[in-house]
Design a protein that fits this description.
The complex is a heterodimer of chains A (about 120) and B (about 110). Chain A is about 0% helix and about 55% strand. Chain A is globular, with a radius of gyration of 13 Å. Chain B is globular and about 40 Å long. The chains are: A mainly beta (about 120), B mainly beta (about 110).
Chain lengths: ~120, ~110
């Protein structure tokens, strides 16, 4: 049973560029959450997608956007990259229980470096 | 902001029990205590959660005080592979979809 997978593993971008990160949820899961983890800090919640819609959002600017596809996979897009966007981006998947998400399983993350 | 307080780091000898404390003095009646850990260069891994009773699974035990203002995660026989950052989280289950992480406790298992 494949767990949560993310691509790419590492990425280097220049300030002002745009980036797309991808996530495939654990088999049977239908909800995807994204987190940003700066060096030495705990992960910070960005947003969550369920039924192809953004259900919850953390305190992140509109430069951060996402999408969920009919097969439940998801993308995180960041526009106009800043140096401060350098971080490990984690995807977590879960199974919705009614309208509520159940336990979250994390992928290995994508390390984004902005120069 | 995280609703928990944990020591920044701890050491434990291999083979001994590792006891990781967590304070959550403002916990609400409908909030659960969750523990995750993050091994270097990996995503966080769920360990255990509980409401008010002590819980045990194949990975760890969770002891919650009667007033629910603090808890202890116990790894009964720590191994070098248990070296990780351990996060104690308070969360409404299953309603609070987002997980609010603090800085956690960096646990070093010493050979």
């Amino acid at each position: 049973d494949a767990g949560v997978t993310q691509s790419p593993t590492h990425l280097i971008k220049t300030r002002g560029q745009q980036v797309t990160l991808r996530c495939s949820p654990k088999s049977g899961h239908d909800t995807v959450s994204w987190y940003q983890q700066a060096l030495g800090q705990g992960p910070q919640f960005i947003f969550q997608y369920y039924e192809e819609e953004e259900r919850q959002r953390g305190n992140f600017p509109d430069r951060f956007s996402g999408h969920q596809f009919p097969n439940y996979s998801s993308e995180l897009n960041v526009n106009a990259l800043l140096l401060g966007d350098s971080a490990l981006y984690l995807c977590a998947s879960s199974l919705a229980w009614g309208q509520l998400a159940y336990e979250q399983y994390f992928g290995p993350g994508t390390r984004l470096t902005v120069t | 902001d995280a609703k928990t307080t944990q020591p920044t780091s701890m050491d434990c000898a291999e083979g001994r029990a590792a006891n990781l404390p967590c304070n959550h003095s403002t916990i609400s009646g409908n909030e659960y205590v969750y523990w995750y850990r993050q091994i270097h260069s990996q995503g966080p891994q769920y360990i255990i959660h509980g409401l008010k009773n002590n819980e045990t699974n194949e990975m760890a035990s969770l002891i919650i005080t009667e007033d629910r203002k603090s808890s202890t995660l116990i790894l009964p026989h720590a191994t070098l592979r248990d070296t990780a950052v351990y996060y104690c989280i308070v969360r409404v289950h299953p309603g609070d979809d987002k997980i609010i992480f603090g800085k956690g406790t960096r646990l070093h298992i010493l050979p």
